[in-house]
């Protein structure tokens, strides 16, 4: 019987996988393969698929669990809850990384979720790190400081992941990915991303199904990078409107401004969303490599006996 490698795990026999069924089930996708999902999300199927994805990627890696940055917001809460259901509370470690101006409500909400899930946590205050960096920089501005905070936090998560032999669990949703509303190599960096095909409004659906606390589900979305900052205030369009537009533009491939306006979308909203999607497309890719005619590096190499 032929044997195979699965990621970094020891060689196993194909019969072991087929008889046990567990590895196969981890990767099986209840959504029909080859069929684009353009309609409303089936929350139950999405939860099942994502949990199998989380379990399968951990098995493939051969590591011990996941570390996730908890902000007190809905995205990180849903990611943490999905991981806890998928692999068990003992394999999920939450890290809280407040800055001195962070909302106390964010910490309170994160701690409530940690208690509900029963997962371990750490707290790493990033104030001294950020303040030391900007100490001699004149008027860096809120965006620059916010980007530095996001990258500092991800650096900490990867360091903790190395220490504890874990993967870093991502928390970014499809809306943020489309708009580039994320810090490149900051919150956009992770080992795997369980929410990347869920629009923000769909994350809310999963949050309800996963019984995320009301205090998290009902608060205005915010990266909490400065006092009073909200996502929708910064973007200039509500998430309900953005997601509805993105479904038409991205999922359905609609390109007619006249058609979209006839459906009730405002020209300013359409232009804003299309502008962000196009301007920050680079955030959806790895850095370009100068082409010299060489073949692509394969994901793996299987040697013949």
Please describe the structure with a list of short key phrases separated by commas or semicolons.
Rossmann fold; disordered N terminus; single chain; two-stranded antiparallel ribbon; alpha/beta; 305 residues; 4-stranded parallel beta sheet
Describe the protein's architecture and organization:
The protein is α/β, with parallel strands linked by helices and 305 residues long. It has a domain of 194 residues: HUPs (Rossmann fold, 3-Layer(aba) Sandwich). It is 49% helix and 6% strand. The protein is built from 14 helices and 6 strands. A 4-stranded parallel beta sheet has the order 5-4-3-6, sandwiched between helices. Helix 3 packs across helix 4. It is globular. The two termini are 14 Å apart. The N terminus is likely disordered.
- State the name of the first-level CATH class of the domain at 36-229: Alpha Beta
The CATH topology of the domain at 36-229: Rossmann fold
What ranges have pLDDT less than 50 throughout 5 or more consecutive residues? 1-27
Derived from helix and strand composition plus strand pairing, the structural class reads: alpha/beta
Helix fraction, binned, reads: 40-55%
Along the chain, the helix and strand elements come as EEHHHEHEHEHHEHHHHHHH
What percentage of amino acids are in beta strands? Answer: 5-15%
C-alpha end-to-end distance: 14 Å
Give the CA-based shape.
Answer: globular
């Amino acid at each position: 019987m032929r044997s195979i490698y699965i990621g970094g795990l020891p060689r196993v026999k194909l019969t072991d996988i087929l008889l046990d069924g567990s590895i196969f089930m981890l990767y099986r996708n209840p959504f029909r393969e080859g069929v684009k999902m353009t309609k409303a999300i089936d929350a139950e199927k999405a939860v099942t698929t994502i949990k199998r994805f989380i379990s399968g990627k951990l098995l493939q890696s051969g590591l011990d669990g996941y570390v996730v940055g908890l902000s007190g917001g809905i995205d990180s809460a849903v990611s943490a809850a999905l991981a806890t259901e998928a692999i068990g509370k003992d394999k999920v470690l939450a890290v809280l990384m407040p800055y001195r101006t962070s909302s106390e409500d964010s910490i309170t909400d994160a701690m409530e979720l940690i208690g509900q899930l029963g997962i371990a946590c750490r707290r790493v205050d990033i104030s001294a790190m950020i303040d030391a960096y900007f100490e001699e920089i004149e008027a860096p501005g809120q965006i620059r400081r916010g980007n530095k905070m996001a990258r500092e936090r991800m650096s900490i998560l990867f360091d903790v992941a190395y220490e504890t032999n874990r993967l870093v669990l991502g928390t970014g949703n499809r809306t943020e990915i489309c708009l580039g509303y994320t810090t490149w190599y900051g919150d956009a960096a992770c080992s795997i991303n369980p929410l990347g095909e869920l629009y923000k409004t769909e994350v809310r659906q999963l949050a309800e199904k996963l019984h995320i606390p009301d205090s998290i589900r009902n608060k205005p979305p915010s990266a909490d990078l400065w006092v009073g900052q909200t996502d929708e205030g910064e973007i200039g369009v509500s998430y309900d409107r953005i997601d509805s537009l993105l479904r038409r533009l991205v999922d359905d491939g609609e390109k007619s401004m006249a058609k979209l306006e006839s459906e009730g979308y405002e020209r300013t909203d359409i232009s804003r969303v299309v502008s962000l999607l196009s301007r920050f497309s680079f955030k959806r890719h790895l850095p370009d490599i100068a082409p010299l005619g060489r073949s692509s590096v394969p994901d793996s190499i299987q040697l013949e006996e």
